Amino acid sequence: MEADKELKELEDTSLSFSDFDDADKWLEGVINPFDSKFDCSDNTLLGDSSLTINSLCDKTKSIFENVIGVPITIIEEDGEHSSIVSHMDENGDKRVNITLGNDGDTPIYTKFNHEMAHYAFDSLNMDFSFYLQSELKQLPKEYIDKALEMYRSVFNVIEDQRVESLMGKIYIGVGKRFESMKKDMGLMKDENTSISSPIDYLHLARELRPDLVPNDMGIANKVMEQVKQKDSLATVLLAKKFINNVLNPWILENIEEDEKANEKESSTGEPKEDTKIVTEFIKRHQENRISDHKDYGFDETLSNEVDRNIEKMENTPEDELLEETSKSIKEKIKSIKDEIEKNARESTSSSNPFPTEIQIIEGHRNSEYEVDTILSKKLRKVLLELQSKNRMKMSDVGDTINIQSYINMLAKGYGDVYEQQKKNNSLHIVIGVDNSGSMNGRIDVARDMLATMFASVKDSKQITIEGYTWSGSESVCAITPMKKLSDCSKCNTSNSYGGTPTDLAMMYGYDLLKNSRAKNKMFVLLTDGYPSTSYIARKNGVDHEDASELLKKEVENNKAKHNIGTLVIGFNCGSREMDMFGKNAFVVDDIETAREMTTQKFKKLIVETQK
Questions:
Q1: Would you tell me the crossing angle of helices 144-170 and 248-268 to the nearest 10 degrees?
Q2: For the chain, which has fewer Cβ within 10 Å, the N-terminal or C-terminal residue?
Q3: Which residues contact 50 (CB under 8 A, 6 or more apart)?
Q4: Are 269 and 261 contacting, i.e. CB atoms less than 8 angstroms apart?
Q5: What is the pLDDT of residues 398-440, one digit of tens each?
Q6: CA of 118: how far to CAs of 102, 165, 336, in Å?
Q7: Residues 6+ positions from 331 with CB-CB distance below 8 Å
Q8: From start to end of 303-389, where are the E strands?
Q9: Which of 86, 101, 77, 81 is nearest to 21 (CA)?
Q10: Domains in the chain, please, with CATH?
Q11: CA–CA distance, 417 with 495 (Å, rounded to integer)
């Protein structure tokens, strides 16, 4: 039959590692960390910025290269499939090529993240077949080639699950994409889905369809959970477990059918019908030829490591070994995260105090504001308490002798002993008000709160306050500065800049405070929730939710390095949407809550930032 001819051609083809059985479907659905629906197309990812997919990939690539130490070349070519290949250059140095197919429905940037997961977490440093000698010995020699092809499919589906879970640990947004894509692929399966071998149950488990996995194949669900957040040895251990307990018994059971078909062909001369083993071999070989990760040549230096790992797997209880693989991967995750944070800090610092995306525009004075006198009095009281807390410093003149300093002076023979009051409790407050389109209906409350804060510091010589409105997109953040109470009439929603580039707005406020000579510094942000766009995501090659993690770090770094306290007030939004800003963020839905929470948080933050 035609299948025999195809089988002969396949047997003459060199073997290699494979990836999942249907990469296109696997890479379809996504989740937006900021919205219930997320368009992960490359065009949406780039928005109206000047970046390209190549520059976006290059940013992520450079971060991982610094950690792993093996250079990467990215190649874009026609075709649907993508791959990652390790090889030696002419100097004997190891290099990696990532080829990204530009056809099909899968966004290139999403394909890139999957290949980077294989690069980052040692998919290329292990020749799986060297670990399978004991499993292959269970089978007749004439079936080893077919079994090895099936083994590779087992290894690859488990390995994909492992590296995706680790990549998702580093980039939360990417992890959510992966989970949603698997879910979408699983939704295309039902109880009528064809099952050609137990390997298909691994795919169902991976695609979040445990309901389609029968009880006697429950090991498939367990393996897919156990391999998450582990190092590469866990994939080998769990693949061997699945092969020994499920796949090899299935092969042995079906060998009898295959041998009977061979006998019938010999005795009758009739073409051999496709048996389950032949059909499965052809299926796995075809999917393995679309190989997503290849490592050409076995590094002889790994031979001893293979022997040690085999001995470890034979002599260590499974739970203990899995726990060990979980601990060993944590250091690599930490090193990558540290590199990402370092890169983010470097990319946001430059000789120019503000990113070029920030544009200063003049607002229009066409809105009335109302000062909340109750809140203003409460805030003024808090601020007066700050100024009344004078600190003492030692001097060579004064009215009061400090006894301990006098004793120290007698012992040392020198030193100041008089106390003087130190009255420099200066405070600089910067307030950024979100005036994007979504603030329609809320901007009046924000404007009144801004005016109230200005009014609360009236005639306070040691307190400086300034505000600004902000809105825009990834490529621009429009800022309207406000220096005095009457400027609050400029606080209106923008008709020209409707997006919410929160990170750019916060950078502007923080930079104002970094240049301030005040002893105490406070940044206040008024907004109605999560960003709609992200400068940090574009700059660092990450998804929006990962950018929010970096922004949270930025809040913490400004507190630690510049003593800038941050207070975020959210208007009529979910409390979850405030998590990205840290502990001093809260939601207000009415004026009474605004008065109580603002006073409480304001006082707490002043105490925290007071030097």
A1: 150
A2: C
A3: 475
A4: no
A5: 556 666 665 666 555 556 655 555 555 678 899 999 998 888 8
A6: 20, 11, 14
A7: none
A8: 358-360
A9: 81
A10: 2-342 (no CATH), 358-389+425-609 (3.40.50.410), 391-423 (no CATH)
A11: 63
Would you state the structure tokens that stand for residue 322, as one six-digit string?
């899995």
Give the SS3 label for residue 48. coil
Q: Which residues 6+ apart lie within 8 Å of 170 measured at CB? A: 120, 333, 336, 337, 340
Alpha-carbon dihedral 287, 293, 298, 300, rounded to 10 degrees: -150
d(CA 289, CA 282): 11
Say how far residue 170 (Cα) sits from the centre of its chain: 5
Distances (CA, A) of 254 to 274, 511, 526: 12, 70, 68
Can you tell me the distance from the alpha carbon of 396 to that of 5, in angstroms, rounded to the nearest whole number? 102
The residue written with tokens 């090659």 in the block is 541
Take residue 396 and report the two structure tokens written for it.
Answer: 């060579």
Could you say which residues of the chain have pLDDT below 70?
1-56, 103-106, 124-127, 264-274, 285-286, 288-303, 344-355, 386-425, 474, 544-545, 573-577, 591, 607, 609-611
> Under DSSP, is residue 70 helix (H, G, I), strand (E, B) or coil?
coil
How long is the chain? 611
Token pair recorded at residue 558:
């400004």
- Say whether 179 sits in a helix, a strand or coil: helix
Which amino acid is located at 439 in the chain?
A: M
pTM: 0.56
